[in-house]
Write the structure tokens for this entry.
Amino acid sequence: MAPLSGPRVAGPIPGPRSRELLERQEQRESNARTYPRRLPIAIARAEGPFIEDLDGNVFLDFLTGAGVLALGHNHPEVVEAVRRQLDVLCHGLDFPTEAKDEFVSVQLELLPTEFRERAKVLFCGPAGANAVDAALKLCKTATGRSEVIAFQGAFHGSTHSAMAVTGMVSQKEPVQNFMHGVHFFPYPNAYRSAVSPEGGPDWEACLHYFRSALEDPLGGITRPAAVIMEMVQAEGGVVPAPTGFVRGVREVTAELGIPLIVDEIQTGCGRTGTWFAFEQHGIVPDVVLASKAIGGIGMPVAVMFYDESLDVWSSGAHTGTFRGNQLAYVAGTAAARIIQRDGILERVRELGAHAFDVLQGMQRENPAVGDVRGVGLMLGVEIVEPGTSEPDGEGARRVQRAALENGLIVELGGRHDAVVRLLPPLNIARETLDQALGILERAFSVALAEQLVA
């Protein structure tokens, strides 16, 4: 089979073969399905940064399994590591194995020294939401407290407790009887502030509100069991937390003895240019959550690293049948070694800065591009109604569709789904990145033209 290259789109999307499977999927599968609704393709195969659909169209994949595929699809070295392990052991519960031991060693090696020296590791289950559940449970057990603080705009998963600390109201409205005791605080957003209506940097106001509410004897919140936050709100619209805010939250939580949980499920494994995004802020959290890319090529695994002072659990206090996924361990180890060997973190910083500059150039030329933001190769472009800063979800959907029709897969997020999100493979070639940015620029122009006609 010939290697994939592209992009190339030869006909309408979806093509006839994709349409057949999409229609069958609609008949058989839950209404909860998401991606094929706005990206109507049926996938035949994938390789590196490319996906081919059943009709022979080839797309650049800047969704990468929602950030799972740090090295793109089917990296040959990682595939070979998994292939070798298939003949040895696939499932091992929480028994020690050589594959698991090496995975733990590599992951600890990549942690900052101050955190690594006190870190314990828990394998939580197959998904990031399992790590969120485990972290909340751990902190409640260790502190004997019940309240939890999360942030507006956050996304931590779709299980019951993970959804309780997620800011997405539409997801929560149909579900009753959430986990009680969750309090949401404003998260800084320089482009669209929740606390500074005039706009501009607002992290100081957010931090002041956070501190005063927790220290005020009339603030109404008893000392919480945990604070959970993202260094970059990914699904929330690619909103990076300013360093001053991150350090301030860490300072307050440390002073008050509140465990700080950092959700690195999408930002981890090099996505932002360091192994974990919290490293860029010079803090030491109490709990770090990882999943998605940590499984190498999409192998499911979720991991919690936490300070040994919190390790008060007894045997069996938290279990999960699929926490012994040996294929995920070898894939994750191989991917981490490749990222180290090939200097990919430095490349992420370089390519991320380059892409950011190009996107800012598009912002200057296109009044529908309201804001460009992100860190490393986690980038977001907020689409607005020209002449205003009002989010334009319909305009973003037009951008997404125009990009798809020209061979580029991108995702949407943020409020009103008005943010075009870019999650390319971390090892993407610069010329391929530029090709994708060129497609996106044309998509912006097409969307603006349709917007003005409408």
Observations:
- The domain at 77-338 is CATH 3.40.640.10 (Aspartate Aminotransferase; domain 2).
- DSSP finds 15 helices and 17 strands in the chain.
